[in-house]
Design goal:
Layout lengths: L7 E4 L3 H13 L5 E4 L2 H10 L4 E5 L7 H9 L9 E5 L4 H10 L3 E4 L4 H16 L1
Helix pairs in contact: 2-3
Length: about 130
């Protein structure tokens, strides 16, 4: 059973995408969502608070989602936090790079609430096992 009160950190440099994903999360019952508009701001959030899941865009400026993921995996406190990478591009080499860096799942835009929920459930179950 997935805890719908799980604190989620949503990271994207486009405010419209933050709003879209937040709304999709609400549709599937997740409302405890914090936002960051870049990787550096996300790292500040992660230093101040524990999150049960990070959903991050791949392509952000100045620091991208892959660098954020590597930073999380390099810190003992955040190394096991489930991480879903979101991107507009589904290139095989990017998917492999994200997996190799420790991403639990990879979502290609556009996606719907059901797909997001399934990826979250798999990411959380995979980390709980």
């Amino acid at each position: 059973m997935i805890d719908r009160d799980l604190p989620i950190l949503l990271v994207d440099d486009y405010r419209s995408m933050l709003r879209i994903i937040r709304n999709l999360l609400r549709q599937v019952g997740f409302a405890n969502v914090a936002e960051a508009t870049d990787a550096d701001a996300a790292l500040v959030h992660l230093a101040e608070r524990r999150f049960g899941l990070v959903i991050s865009d791949w392509n952000m400026q100045p620091t991208g989602g892959l660098a954020l993921l590597k930073a999380l995996r390099g810190e003992p406190r955040t190394s096991l936090v489930p991480f879903i990478m979101v991107t507009a591009e589904g290139r095989a080499e990017d998917v492999l790079a994200a997996r190799d860096a420790g991403a639990d799942h990879y979502l290609v835009k556009p996606f719907n609430a059901a797909t997001l929920e399934a990826k979250i459930c798999h990411a959380l179950q995979g980390r709980a096992a």
